[in-house]
Amino acid sequence: MRQFLWEEAARDWQSKRAEGRPPQFSEYVVRSLRAVREGVGREAGTVASMRTVHRVFLPDKGSDRLPDSYVAEHHALTLFGLHQHAASEPVHQPGTGLGTACLRLRRSEALTQTAVERRLIAAATAQDLHELAQHLQRLVPLLRQAGIGLDYTRLWGELARWDGPDRNRTLRAWGLQYTDPATAPAEREEAGQEQAPYWATFEPGSGDAGAELAALRSGIGREAGTVAAMWAFHRTRMEFTWRDKGALTRDLAAEHAALTLFARHQQTHVRRMHVVGNSPGAAAGLLAQKAAADGEGKSATAALEKRFGVLLTSADADELVMHLRSLVPLLNRAGVGLDYDLLRDALRAWDDPRRPDAAASLRQTWDRDFHAAATS
């Protein structure tokens, strides 16, 4: 397959500069840019002037449905046309993902942080490719005005996969790129210090507390890193190349689960429910103690002990999270806190093949904590 138009345009411009000539686009590229701009807002395959600039070919026979790769190229071409329009240098910049571009836009101060995030989140929550293209049509001219490029080959691939199961990886990549504490190698060492997790700094009385907790609850049952409303609350450190490609790490999955559990736990409380030292075993034991003190009898204590025993048998971290989702509302109603640092660490280690004894050790510790708290 020939190079995409955006790749040809960049090569054309760069070759002139390398030859010592004034760097500018050839007449072919200029005509092609006019052609692709005619396709903005039009259906793929219906714009005659665009047919010669497509590099994804349609099959001679087969389904009447256009291939996803062709439709994605149509949208990528029109976005490139809008982005490159009146820009003096190539806007196709290999290696620059959409999240990174939006981070640079935010740091340029051409728009406020709120305005940038609103546009990125609108794109990330698009229900289908057509809606995504509409949001990007409003975003790329802002990138052009700020002199920020974008990897259009990468974007084409993300558009082609948007309506399929790989959307989650794209979303995670955008979010991790946008929240990367440093984009230049020289800054990364300085940014390497780990931030305190959200639950440790949460202020129950702040004006934004309710909205923040609602955003975190929206991630319940969702894959880590794919919920745009949660991006601002992640603190997981990750090497740049892993962030850039949207890797789903054990650390990120554990933090995501802990954030959603904390949001459900904190709901309605005026004091912070992150309580240092309260393991899940200790918290469940305090629940049992409260049940006995409130006169609910031995049956209530036995029921809690049975529920907690089932939690301890969790085969993997996903099952553990499922049982914790049942426990946390009980903790919420009783006003019993939980150490979310300990919980995150446990979720990271529970089924880690590099730590085969971790789950057994945690089970013993939590069981001991339960009985100590329940009988104190």
Question: What does this protein structure show overall?
Answer:
The chain is mainly alpha-helical and 376 residues long. It is built from 18 helices and no strands. It has helices at 5-18, 27-37, 68-84, 98-108, 113-124, 129-145, 152-160, 167-178, 185-191, 198-201, 209-217, 240-244, 250-266, 280-293, 297-312, 317-334, 340-349, 358-375. It starts with a helix and ends with a helix.
Topology summary:
Blueprint: H1 5-18, H2 27-37, H3 68-84, H4 98-108, H5 113-124, H6 129-145, H7 152-160, H8 167-178, H9 185-191, H10 198-201, H11 209-217, H12 240-244, H13 250-266, H14 280-293, H15 297-312, H16 317-334, H17 340-349, H18 358-375
Strand and helix order: HHHHHHHHHHHHHHHHHH
Radius of gyration, rounded? 26 Å
Helix content: 55-70%
- Separation of the first and last Cα atoms: 72 Å
Q: What are the low-pLDDT stretches, counting only 5+ consecutive residues below 50?
A: 183-189
How big a fraction of the residues is strand?
Answer: under 5%
Tally of contiguous helical segments? 18
Indicate the multimeric state: single chain
Global shape: elongated
* Strand tally: 0
Biggest sheet: strands, sense, closure?
A: none
Structural class estimated from helices and strands: mainly alpha
Arithmetic mean pLDDT: 93
List keywords for this structure.
single chain; 376 residues; mainly alpha; 18 helices
Gist?
By secondary structure, the protein is mostly helical. The protein has helices spanning 5-18, 27-37, 68-84, 98-108, 113-124, 129-145, 152-160, 167-178, 185-191, 198-201, 209-217, 240-244, 250-266, 280-293, 297-312, 317-334, 340-349, 358-375. The longest helix is centred in the C-terminal third of the chain and has 18 residues, at 317-334.
